[in-house]
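Human: My hope is that you can spare some time for a protein that puzzles me. I am handing you a single protein, as its sequence and its fold in token form. Could you go through the record with me and say what the backbone is doing? Take your time, and here it is.
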Amino acid sequence: MKKIEILLIAFLISGCTITIGPKKKYPSKKRNYTYHIVRKGENLFRISKYYYDGKTVEEIKRGIERIRKANKMKDYNIKVGQKLLIPYTSKHQPPYPLLPPASDEKVNDKKIPVKKEPIIKDFIWPADGKIICDFGELGNKGIDLLVKPGSEVYAVMDGEVVCVAFTQKYGETLIIKHKNNIFTVYAHDININVKEGEKVKKGQIVGKIKMGRKKRYLHFEIRESGEPVDPFYYLPKKEK
């Protein structure tokens, strides 16, 4: 619209006349990209979710790859103040930071929740990787880690293997039962090397991440009596 107005003004200034005739239809040239300045607390997962309206983790992952390739990024790390090119979108950067719902605070709520102490404090991480989807995002019942193909997956605590199966939602799935009715779930791009009924020790290799692709993902959950809880409640501190 601005371009049309500028052209009309140019015609008027130059004294040119405009002949009115049949209107020609020209395809509109809408800009299909924008720029995003990274704010504190943002990551590629949340940025991709906003600009591409991702409804599933897989859709958001595809958006992450678009952004990474457009900016020639070697990894998935971003810094506050970094300017990102966001291709294939008509959206503009919102005035607020793109933070997870869990970060929203209720200012008027006078009740301060008291965080209970975890029953087990000495869990270890199931694999070495970067978190790309937090607990609670898009209904995620655990966390998703970006891991290296061929890397090892560990039992986070002593326990017994109660399930080794292929599920439609997660693919290859391993479930280990620990004391105090706590369960851990390991799934997605994993080759499992333990069997049901097998006792495992903390730190024992229970599987390896599949090969064949440059990027692989591990889905991990912790459940108390069947109910999913935030893994960060049990796992050692690590930057999200």
Summary: The chain has two domains: 28-99, 129-233. The chain has three helices and 13 strands. The two ends are 43 Å apart (CA to CA). The longest helix spans residues 57-70.
